[in-house]
Amino acid sequence: MKERPILFSAPMVRALLAGTKTQTRRALKAQPPAGTFQVSTWHHPDPRPHFFAWQELPHETAMIADDWAHPCPYGAPGDRLWVREAFMHEPADYCWEASVSIPCRPAVTVYRADHDEKESRGAGWKPSIHMPSAMSRIDLEVIGVRVERLQDISEADALAEGAPSADLASGRECIFPHQGTRRWGFQLLWESINGLHSWRANPWVWVVEFKRLTARAK
């Protein structure tokens, strides 16, 4: 079993704490080559499960693409992820003991996800990337990993992503029936994080399924 960090935004942290988020999708940094129709695990000498890109050939056969094989950076079933989120110390990092070079620790860690988004703007929050493991409050156990195209997400998986219904995600009243779906809500959420045309690009993504652990295991 290995432990790895993973970053989540404040809304997704709230979904984790509420138990409504049990999946996350992250774009593959190295996208499979053109013509790939499937990405799946296959035998590899490395003990980590590698994912290979499968391509169709002219004679209706398939083969593994040359020079494309990657393990999931978020681990394999049984591994654990500790969540990094925006935070700050309260009181501030400065204390009298630190001023005289005596090591001290902040008394309280405050998490941005626990505060209203508007009220917490510009409040000196530390980015999630800077959160050390000792200050993380959420541990996840990986229970499944696969690769698929972004737009292949189902309504059930969009719900498992913690996506709001589209009318809530956009702040607009639904005009057409499909706009109230979780899948469309996930599209709006994805574009808010990855850019306006990121959904249209339809990248291959890691789909990581997990369960939240009740207590941190150190």
Please tell me about this protein's structure.
The chain has 218 residues and is an alpha+beta fold. Helix content is 19%, strand content 30%. It contains 6 helices and 10 strands, in the order E-H-E-E-E-E-E-E-H-E-E-H-H-H-H-E. Strand 4 and strand 5 form a beta hairpin. The longest helix is centred in the C-terminal third of the chain and has 13 residues. About 6% of the residues have low confidence.
Brief overview:
The chain is an alpha+beta fold and 218 residues long. The protein is built from six helices and ten strands; from the N terminus they run βαββββββαββααααβ.
List the defining traits of the structure above.
single chain, alpha+beta, three-stranded antiparallel beta sheet, 6 helices
Shape field: globular
What strand line-up does the widest sheet have?
1-6-9-10-2
Mean pLDDT: 82
Into which percent range does the helicity of residues fall?
A: 10-25%
The structural class is alpha+beta
If helices are DSSP runs of H or I spanning 4 or more residues, what is the number of helices? 6
Strand residues, percent: 25-35%
* Span of the ends, CA to CA: 12 Å
Question: What's the Cα radius of gyration?
Answer: 20 Å
Give, in order, the helices and strands: EHEEEEEEHEEHHHHE
* Biggest sheet statistics: 5 strands, mixed
> Spans of 5+ residues with little confidence (pLDDT < 50)?
96-102, 173-177
Number of strands: 10
Explain the layout of strands and helices.
Elements: E1 3-7, H1 10-18, E2 23-27, E3 36-42, E4 50-56, E5 62-71, E6 80-84, E7 87-89, H2 96-99, E8 109-111, E9 139-149, H3 155-160, H4 166-170, H5 182-194, H6 198-201, E10 204-212
